[in-house]
Amino acid sequence: MKISKLFTKLAVIGLVSTGAVSSATAVHATTTVNVAAPNGNPAYIVNTDNGPEGYYGELIKKIDQDLPQYKFKTTFTSQNAVFSGLQSSKYDVALNNSWYNKQRFQTYYHTRAVGLDDLRLVYNKSGKKASSLDDVAKKNLKLVPVSTDDARYSVLEDYNKSHSKKLNLKAIGDQSSADALAQVANGKYDVALYPYAAYKQVANSKNGKKLTVSKSIDQRSAYLLLHKDAKNKKLTRALNKEIKKLYDNGYLEKLTKKYLYENTFALPGAKKNYNAEFNK
Question: Which Gene3D superfamilies is this protein grouped with (predicted)?
Fold first, then answer.
């Protein structure tokens, strides 16, 4: 009798212990988030032996640290593959500095803005000058082709939709900013549209020394895009809460100064332009 009671007592303890372990496991369970990033732009995102680096590399590590319920796994791939993978659900999040685009905001979930870009026109010091997109259109300057998957394409396309004098806009496949700006330096094209950080990365190179930039012509907020499903709807809410915290406590401004060669949050109009399209 005593032995049977002992076994019963041990069995109860075992059930309690098992329940405790299961409960603990549930508390510490994590959801893997598959993140896609285009490689080769050190200011924004680049693959290193220490994982992703640059503005978004440091940001995603910070988010991974602050949201223990998620494990963010970053895969580097081409720009085109980022979006095809995001649409097919191969990836949950695109880490590629996406500006507002009506179709994309309808196709994917989007977070609050994770950064603010300063747009400039880059041209050859000894070539034709441009201080605005109006200049580019009116002077019929040859514009470096842009990938249709690149956020800059939408900016240029929107300009053409709202102006009678059009930009000479051509599409192209994936191309690095260094290669594109080299084409301006060697005279193949007259001008390129890029965030200031893209120019600064090549400014001291052989080709970069032939180039200069206009003053700021626009500012664009950058958002994270997510594949639409129930899991990522919940993830989007968690990311929005985290991103707001990182903006309010100055972390995004710190990253901007560290990687983007200037404090875009201090530019005229920055408060109005940051997160401007979030509710669209």
Answer: Periplasmic binding protein-like II
Amino acid at 18: T
185, 208 contact by CB (below 8 A): yes
SS3 label, residue 137 = helix
Residue 61: count of CB within 10 angstroms of its CB:
16
Q: Is residue 74 within a helix (H) or strand (E), and if so which, with residue range?
A: strand 70-77
Residue 15 is which amino acid?
Answer: L
Cα-Cα-Cα-Cα torsion 184, 195, 58, 94, nearest 10 degrees, comes to -90
> Strand pairing partners for 33?
72
Q: Which of 115, 168, 112 is nearest to 142 (CA)?
A: 168
Q: Helix, strand or coil for residue 190?
A: coil
Amino acid (1-letter code) at residue 130: A
- pTM equals 0.85
Q: How many CB atoms lie within 10 A of CB 193?
A: 26
Amino acid at 52: P
Cβ contact 190:166 at 8 Å: no
**C-beta neighbour count of 36 within 10 angstroms:** 25
The pLDDT tens digits of the residues spanning 44-98 come to 999 999 899 999 999 999 999 999 999 999 999 988 899 999 999 999 999 989 9
Rounded Cα distance between 43 and 47, Å, is: 11
Taking every pair of C-alpha atoms in the chain, what is the biggest distance, in angstroms? 100
- Residue 100 is given by DSSP the state P
Residues in the chain: 280
